[in-house]
Amino acid sequence: xxxxxxxxxxxxxxxxxxxxxxxxxxxxxxxxxxxxxxxxxxxxxxxxxxxxxxxxxxxxxxxxxxxxxxxxxxxxxxxxxxxxxx
Length: 86
Hints:
The chain contains three helices and no strands.
C-alpha cells in the first residue's frame, strides 16, 4: 500500500513535469504574455479596420450630402420656373 502511494505520487509528478509551464513560473508567465500580445495585435488590427470603415462611411456621407444639395438646387430652380410660367 505504501508502494502504491509512492508510485501514485511519482506518476502525478511525472505528469506535472511533462508541461514546463506547470513547473516553471517564468515559462508560464511568458506563455500568458504571448497570449496577451496576440490579443493586443488582434485588437489593433480590428481598430485599424474599423477606422478604414469609418473613412469609407464619411466619404459616402459626403457624396450623399453633395447629391442632396444638387437635388435641392435643381428642385428650387425647377420650382422657380414653374412659378414664373403662371
